[in-house]
Amino acid sequence: MKYKKALDVLPPEIIKIIQEYVEGEFLYVPAKENKRAPWGEKSGIKKSLKIRNSEIYKKYLKGSTINELSLEYYLSDKSIRRIISDRKTKCS
To answer: Is residue 1 part of a domain?
Structure first.
């Protein structure tokens, strides 16, 4: 998220109205609902997690134990089980 000066992007009339509610503080203006990217799309984390989860499932199929995978990926046993279960469901 990038900060912008209100004086650079808003007309003076709008700034005066906003100053009635908040003055000299940071104000977050959310994107319109139809312009929001789904979670993790912009940062690429969604894609990274999908790749990681595929790796975990492949290693599990090749014989890695849940405990080994949890130590390797710094995840709880419960998280590893969830990833494996989700993958099994998607592959079925």
So the answer is: no
**Residue stretches of the chain with pLDDT short of 70:** 1, 35-36, 92
Torsion sign (Cα): 68, 70, 74, 80? positive
Number of domain units in the chain:
1
DSSP string, 18-44: HHTT--SS----PPPGGGPPPTTTTTS
Angle, CA 64 vertex, CA 62 and CA 69 arms, to 5°: 130
Structural domain contains residue 26: yes
The amino acid present at 9, given as its one-letter code, is V
What's the domain range around 79? 6-91
Read off the pTM: 0.60
